[in-house]
Amino acid sequence: MDLNTPITGASRSYKMYARRLAKLGIFKLYDFLFHIPFRYEDYSLISQINQIQAGELVTIKGRVEKIENSYTRRWKSLQKAKISDNTGTIDIIWFNQPYIPKALKAKDEVSLSGKVQQEKNGFIMISPDYEVILNNQTIHTGRLVPIYPETKGVSSKWIRRQVFKILEELKNFDDYIPAELIKNNNLIDLSSAIKAIHFPKNQNEAKKARERLSFDEMLKLHLSSLNRKREWQKEKIKPWNVGLFNKKIADFIKSLPFELTVAQKRAVDEVLNDLNSDKPMNRLLEGDVGSGKTVVAAIAAYVAYLNGFQTAFMAPTEILARQHFKTLASLFLPLGIAVELFSSESKINRRFDVAVGTHALIYKKVKFDKLGLVVIDEQQRFGVEQRAMLRLKGQNPHLLTMTATPIPRTVALTMYGDLDLSILDEMPKGRINIKTWLVPPLKRENAYEWIKGKVKKENDQVFIICPLIEESENMTTVKAAKKEFERLSSEVFSDLKLGLLHGKLKSREKEDVLSAFKNRRLDILVSTPVVEVGIDIPSATIMLIEESERFGLAQLHQLRGRVGRGNKQSFCLLFTSSTNPQTLKRLKAMEQIYSGPKLAELDLKLRGPGNIYGTMQHGIPMLKIASFSDLDLIQKTKEAAMQIFNKLSDYPKLVESVKLSDKKIYPD
Ligand code: ADP
Ligand code: MG
């Protein structure tokens, strides 16, 4: 069996599933093996029928005596069976699964796992998992049964069957981890790990498998960081002149309308140091929304200009690009530095020093004759491909990446081990914490009244964030936002002016809505969570978030950061109808903690890393099995990576595997 067979080229039955499987990241047969169960159903207690007890989660094996479809008095379908073994007989009931009598027939030897219930006439099992026993083996019952991430039309049961089939045919799996690492870290071999992660004999075996595969995943992450770092630093460059322009740089900083915070000064120093070295800078500037990252980048761009270099300033959206353009233009035009905005339509042939735009900047039309600095806002990782693009253009620029995503330090150091890290952990003076309240359904009306009062009496402006219905912003989410917009406009805030913003608007329309809001022609902006990426509207002071429990704390923190940008007291109302005490406790943290990294750290503990950022946060790769909260693992694998990095070429299979997982973890 060739594990590299793409799903689309495999058997016909797979072909039908290709699109659904792609959603789960399964493109090749191989990917099934690395589709990791997130838990196991414990069906390992096997009992004879006369031994079972009420309430037990148990597996029985026996013969089908009778099985049939029947109907309740209300015409709901019902499946009834009688199963017997050498010791007795038991009744089984399923609801509304008329296909079961086709799968299990009289006289079949079957295995059933489920809860036992006491009825008037003895025990029964209701809706157990079931299968016909073939070759004395069971897959879905009578063992620890793997439960997988599913998607519509692809059940755990179906995945389980595929994995089982593949594992049966596959005899051995070549290990790619150097034997010394396996030994020193007390790991099991890869073949055993893959078999055991899917079909462990017991919990301990599952644990060992998880340890081994987590180790692999984290190790590869470190190796790939080390590799990128080495690649990045391969080419020496001529250090820029910084000392020569000390006075000019200081004057520029003095001319700013504010004094830099201590954190900003530190970050500027770190950046200047990089620019002054013979290796291209590759730095991540992390700071909460409003911590003032832009100006740090602007100073770097100024130094680029002084050294005769151009800067490309890239933002993830056109809205943000426009905003950066305005900021930079106001700083630079007075100094005679030419700033240009490149939108998807524009073609500019004038000479420029600073180009602002989306990522299209470095791909297409824009001709740089002396690109020296690339600033990327809100994208943690400069795509390998983009880097290659720049090399093709013959440029080896300094790179400054900025993010407001509160990444816990340990995560940043693992994930972005190739980057140097500067953190703005301090807000500019005079900022007031955003008062944050959790609002249960009972207080919804009051909250609306309060908002009306604030808008009418104090001229406040409000963001209302609709829930993200599905993972990415698709039509379902947009429809929901439209509906909420209409409800609010007609029923709740009929005497106020509302606008609607969502990702499916044309960029022109978005701009119009935003400028209307910015110019106070709107009181309330109803929006899908797209605004998260960051727009600066200082006059907005109230942030209302619907179904806040759907967001991670770090995301909520980012949304909250859209207000409180001016000097007026701002507010954040977290609507939730959840009654789950843990959820409420998690959300309550928003009322007390105002530091992004702290909230991220907390969410990492409470919900696990898969959930901190949600899927709409780009640039944060999701781990399949390892966990960023496992500091021990991070440390162990880091040491292992250092140990073998210099002789990596001795392990071509490992190199291959790092490349492969790189592609998966950081899709471009
Ligand atoms: P972010 O880090 O979210 O990108 P910005 O760079 O957009 O933040 O800055 C947010 C606002 O704070 C801007 O209006 C900016 O002019 C202002 N600002 C930046 N640094 C300072 C400072 N040291 N003191 C006062 N205001 C500042
Ligand atoms: Mg910003």
Structural notes for this entry:
- The chain is of the alpha/beta class.
- Among the domains are: 45-142, OB fold (Dihydrolipoamide Acetyltransferase, E2P) (Beta Barrel), CATH 2.40.50; 243-424, P-loop containing nucleotide triphosphate hydrolases (Rossmann fold, 3-Layer(aba) Sandwich); 435-593, P-loop containing nucleotide triphosphate hydrolases (Rossmann fold).
- The chain is 39% helix and 19% strand.
- The protein contains 22 helices and 21 strands.
- The strands form four sheets. A seven-stranded parallel β-sheet has the order 11-12-10-13-14-9-15. A six-stranded parallel β-sheet has the order 16-21-20-17-19-18, sandwiched between helices.
- The radius of gyration is 29 Å and the shape is globular.
- The two termini are 29 Å apart.
- Bound molecules: adenosine-5'-diphosphate and magnesium ion (MG).
- The site of adenosine-5'-diphosphate has 16 residues, from α10.
What labels describe this entry?
single chain; 668 residues; alpha/beta; OB fold (Dihydrolipoamide Acetyltransferase, E2P); Rossmann fold; 7-stranded parallel beta sheet; 6-stranded parallel beta sheet; 21 strands; 39% helix; binds adenosine-5'-diphosphate; binds magnesium ion
Layout of SSEs?
Elements: H1 12-23, H2 29-33, E1 39-42, E2 57-71, E3 77-85, E4 88-95, H3 100-103, E5 109-119, E6 122-126, E7 129-132, E8 144-147, H4 156-169, H5 179-184, H6 190-198, H7 203-233, H8 246-255, H9 262-275, E9 282-287, H10 293-306, E10 310-314, H11 318-332, E11 339-342, E12 354-357, H12 360-363, E13 371-377, H13 384-392, E14 398-403, H14 409-415, E15 420-424, E16 435-439, H15 444-458, E17 461-465, H16 475-492, E18 498-501, H17 507-518, E19 524-527, E20 540-545, H18 553-560, E21 571-575, H19 581-592, H20 596-607, H21 631-645, H22 652-665
Parallel strand pairs: 4-6, 9-14, 9-15, 10-12, 10-13, 11-12, 13-14, 16-21, 17-19, 17-20, 18-19, 20-21
Antiparallel strand pairs: 1-8, 2-3, 2-5, 3-4, 5-6, 5-7
Helix pairs in contact: 6-7, 7-21, 7-22, 9-10, 18-20
